[in-house]
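Service request form, structural biology core

Requester: graduate student, group of Dr. S.
Request type: structure prediction, single chain
Budget code: on file
Notes: please return the result as C-alpha cells.

Sequence provided:
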Amino acid sequence: MKRVGLTALLLVLGSVGAALQTAPQTGAIRYNGHHAATVDLDQLRNQIGFVTQDTQLFSGSIRENLLFVNPAATDAECLDVLRQAACDSLLARADKGLDTVIGEGGVKVSGGEKQRLSIARALLRRPQLLVFDEATSSLDSLTEEGIVDTIRDVAAGGDAITVLIAHRLSTILHADRIHVLERGRIVETGRHDELVAAKGLYYAMWRQQIGERRGVEARAAARLVLSP
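Core staff response, request fulfilled:
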C-alpha cells in the first residue's frame, strides 16, 4: 500500500455486498507483520477508529458523547479533535462548551454536524487505522463536500492509515490508492487518473456518476448561452 507521508488513503469501491467476504481464500491477513490468528482482537479494536453512515449519538453533553470511546481523554484533547473534525459551527452554538447538551432537550445538530462529531470521536481513540464506511452516503451533496474536505484534512494531518469505503466516486477522487471491488475481488487498482485512463470498470462508473452529470450541466449552460 502506497504511503503519503504517514498517511495512506485506500478506497474499496464496488457493487453492493462486494466487500462482505472477509476471510481470504488464499494467503493470510497480517497486522503490522503479525498473523491475524495471533492478534489480540481487543487490542486491535482499540487501535481502530470507525465512522459509518449511521452516526450513533445519544442525548447528553458533547463531552459525554466523545468520552464514550476514551474515558481518560482530557478536555484539551476533546477540543483538539473537535477542531480537527471542523466542528466550528457546533462549538459556536455550544454556550456551555463541552458541557453543552445535544439532542433531545439540548442543541439540535444537523446531519453534517453529527458526522463531524462522529469523526471527532473516532480521532479521540488516537487510532492507527481510521475507517470511513459510506460516511457521506446519507448526506446532501453540499454537506458531503464539506465532510469529504474534512476527511482529506484529517488524513493529511494525522499518522493513521485512512480507509475510505464508498460507492460515490465524488468522495474518493483524492485517494492515494483506489481498489475497485467486484464480487469480492479486486479487479483494478490505481489512482483516479490512472483508472480513468485504463477505461475499465472504474472508468465506466466514473462516466456514469461524474461524466454524465457534467454533460448535463454543460448542455444546460449551452442552452442558456443560445437563448435570445
